[in-house]
Structure formats: structure tokens, C-alpha cells
Model the fold of this input.
Amino acid sequence: MLILFLTTYIMTSYTAISEPTNSIEHCLLLFIQYSQHGLTA
Done:
């Protein structure tokens, strides 16, 4: 679960550089998707 969180954080930081406006929404969406994967796996 920690690895998924770190991956989400890294992807979000890259997204924040390219698209600062959508970074927060993108982070939330990624985190929700990874959370659901972690719960179901």
C-alpha cells in the first residue's frame, strides 16, 4: 500500500509540473483508483 501511495505521489508531482490546475483533481482520482485496487486485491 505504501508503494502505491509513493507511486501516486510521484505521478502527481509530474502532473503538477505539466498541468498545475488539474493536479489536485488528478491526485484525488489516482488515489481513489489505487485505494480501490488495494481494497479489492
Summary: The chain is about 85% helix and 0% strand. The chain has a mean pLDDT of 73. Residues 16 and 22 are 8 Å apart (CA to CA). Residues 2-40 form one domain.
